[in-house]
Amino acid sequence: MAVQTVQNGTGANAAGTTVDLGPAAALSCRECGERFDLGPIFACASCFGPLEVAYDLPSGTPDELKKRIAAGPDNIWRYAPLLPVPADVASKPNINPGFTKLVKADNLARELGITGSLHVKDDSGNPTHSFKDRVVAIAVEAARAFGFTTLSCSSTGNLAGAVGAAAARAGFRSCVFIPHDLEQGKVVMAAVYGGDLVGIEGNYDDVNRFCSELIGDPLGEGWGFVNVNLRPYYGEGSKTLAYEICEQLGWRLPDQLVIPIASGSQLTKIDKGLQELIKLGLVEDKPYKIFGAQAKGCSPVSTAFKAGHDVVRPQKPDTIAKSLAIGNPADGPYVLDIARRTGGAVEDVDDEQIVDAIKLLARTEGIFAETAGGVTVGVTKKLIESGLLDPTLTTVVLNTGDGLKTLDAVAPTTGPTATIRPSLDAFRDAGLAAS
Amino acid sequence: MAVQTVQNGTGANAAGTTVDLGPAAALSCRECGERFDLGPIFACASCFGPLEVAYDLPSGTPDELKKRIAAGPDNIWRYAPLLPVPADVASKPNINPGFTKLVKADNLARELGITGSLHVKDDSGNPTHSFKDRVVAIAVEAARAFGFTTLSCSSTGNLAGAVGAAAARAGFRSCVFIPHDLEQGKVVMAAVYGGDLVGIEGNYDDVNRFCSELIGDPLGEGWGFVNVNLRPYYGEGSKTLAYEICEQLGWRLPDQLVIPIASGSQLTKIDKGLQELIKLGLVEDKPYKIFGAQAKGCSPVSTAFKAGHDVVRPQKPDTIAKSLAIGNPADGPYVLDIARRTGGAVEDVDDEQIVDAIKLLARTEGIFAETAGGVTVGVTKKLIESGLLDPTLTTVVLNTGDGLKTLDAVAPTTGPTATIRPSLDAFRDAGLAAS
Q: b/e for A266-279, b at 16 or more Cβ within 10 A?
């Protein structure tokens, strides 16, 4: 197990104590490869490239490792040997997300003309009902290791709830920043866990700019911003989606995955997780294709993919898929690389197609997805129609959130079949009796 | 495995084929004990008492049965040998609820002065985020066995979503009846799964009366009303809460359970489940206490308990805990029996205490509960203060639903700590920086 001394000047663990984040050996720059000691840093000191966690992966045979995983808890901590967390992580208070259902979606497959097998990885089953619980849970352990006492983030939705809930349970103070004019429902979800919630007079960009200032100021001393100074650790949480999908398929790689793109981090980390499983011999080394899914109203990556560009040009988002509405996705270029390397693609669907896809998934599989789930299901349909996705193979589609959080998307077109007086005659006239 | 012929005249399986509901041997009257063949009937032909499922419980040693359960899926079907479902139930399309988290609630225990161990059984992790998925999943299998093609219910909330989702996935048509003036959010949750949703011009009582008429009419031919003509099977789903709690405690009985009361069915079935586990030798035969929890605005059972009555006098509900607002609870007298037999109690809390308890659970454990969860947590607090619940023992508190479905309860008192301009000065003035 790697134990590293925190670099001087990182602002954490000033006492110079050691940091135990299990198999995490160092941070390495994704651009130039330079390595840094584990610490709350996120950009390469040489080239400003993003940092990611490098591991000493566990030794032992694949069967031994599978047995070790199977003996673990029914949450992401079963994969502790592959994550930047201490070995005893499961005994610490945390929100314990993961091991959500991989639903075999035979009804949906039939409607889409898929003759292979189709599975929906349904992350609405997480504690606060989105995949954000995975990444926040890892950030919590990094914050603990670095001696932070406050967890923070800027958010307009899922992340605020995930941070609030995890901080409450793990014994951190939380202070979350939101635009001041959010809908009341979202404010309630962010505030109910009892941490501090600060409305910022401005839009989401203003909130982000303010948070960047705060990180560099003594006022933010001791604060872990889960998706800024803890981002290299936070991002690793998405690897657990890859691990779970393969384990739930009986330690087999799917042939095709359809993954939503916001910043693009989730897609790149799922690819990283699949590569690790191949390297460790937990799954067969065979090709798989990764497809990225965007909303047309915020489709910088799919636009670049279709144009054959390596650079992603920012867009101003205008879509009902708010949780994917990042106009300048940090990991966009890496997503393009992965889609091209694996033989996948990046596609987008418009708001009407998103709503149709949410309803399609609900009426075929009983899963009520967030708009992001409508994006992946809608894109899957489109990819089959265009011939890019092979309907005879094994495909996994991600639903990363819960429809209860985006009721507005379907409300205008979802209502009663009929409204009648309470009488059998009225019911007969409505034509709804059994045929 | 018991295979029974459906009674003539029950309206299902008119062809006289046999019904395989696994270990379910018969229906028996809870009042007079008379037995009936398995069928879609719910009241005793002799005394009109409620019918419940009688079992041929599995033979074999406790260790063999534990091993068989552990080898099952991570949902309620792992307990198929103890439920009215066929042995191959896990291979049929269903919503597969259960095996939700039993959260060790150390932070909440500390706040409540509990020195023993406190656990929250968090059923917000079910597919449609309430315990109703458990009972509906069993009703689906009964409906399949009896040849029904339409699933139905009257509902104002959780049940509508559970029926809609399960019917969609299991391949049934659904037709759910609601009062015509429900809030739009609840209508969306009921309608999104694509079944028929019928608004009835009237209140919830009118809806129920209409459904009773429909069951007796040819218009309702082939319809399974999950909580009426399938009620004996439906109710058994709540036993799985007992099984899971004990298995998750390492096959040990808790000393005390705090359970919400709507109709009272859930509480009586949890007791039935615990008794079965004792009988089968899966847990030690030792005393446990069952506490019932109501909202003061709908507290017919706690009122009767405190007055020492055996009869429950109906009340007109007026509480924010809508999912518990049954003024004339069918199983009220049985709840009184169980609370008295086990040495428990029935207590209630007012709306303000419910809201406080929702927030207490959220800020200590990161669990955002429905109002029903506020009722059980609030009652637990009150029972400790009054000395009826022993804080040195092992206690399990149920959260049966999700806070996202009852945002209105906490919205008026849950908001930002501060609203500021996006500047460090403004933030400093707000006094929220680290101390």
A: bbbbbbbbbebbbe
Distance CA A72, CA A56 (A): 20
B161 by Cβ neighbours in 10 Å (0-12 / 13-18 / 19+) ranks as: buried
Give A57-73 pLDDT, tens digit per residue: 999 999 999 999 999 99
Cβ B165–A206 below 8 Å, yes or no? no
To the nearest whole Å, the CA of B190 is away from the closest chain A CA by 8
A200-233 pLDDT tens trace = 998 888 998 999 999 989 999 999 999 999 999 9
Please judge whether B432 and A196 are an interchain contact, meaning their C-beta atoms are less than 8 angstroms apart.
Answer: yes
CATH architecture for residues A102-129+236-413: 3-Layer(aba) Sandwich (3.40)
ipTM score assigned to the predicted complex: 0.94
* DSSP per residue, B58-76: --S-HHHHHHHHHTS-SSG
Length, in residues, of chain A:
435
Q: CB-based contacts of B302: which residues, under 8 Å, 6+ apart? A: B261, B292, B294, B346, B347, B348
Alpha-carbon distance A60 to B39, whole Å?
55
**Dist CA B411 CA B413 (whole Å):** 5
Cβ atoms of A189 and A197 closer than 8 Å: no
Fold matches, B102-128+236-413 and B147-229: yes
A416 contacts on B by Cβ (under 8 Å): 178, 180, 187, 191, 197-199
Rounded Cα distance, B34 and B257, in Å: 31
Question: Facing residues of B348 across strands?
Answer: B294
Partner-chain contact B405 A404, CB within 8 Å: yes
CA dist A358 and B137 (Å) reads: 22
Per-domain residue ranges for chain B?
102-128+236-413, 147-229
Instruction: Give A241's contacts (C-beta < 8 A, 6+ positions apart).
Output: A121, A123, A131, A134, A266, A269, A270, A273, A398
The rounded distance, in Å, linking the Cα atoms of B209 and B211 is 5
Interface test with A, best of B124, B175, B414 (most A CBs within 10 A): B414
Q: Do A219 and B430 touch (CB under 8 A)?
A: no
| CB neighbour burial string for A114-123, b if at least 16 within 10 angstroms, e if fewer | beebbbbbbb
CATH fold of B102-128+236-413, please? Rossmann fold (3.40.50)
Q: Find the mean pLDDT for residues A308-320.
A: 96
Classify domain B147-229 by CATH number: 3.40.50.1100
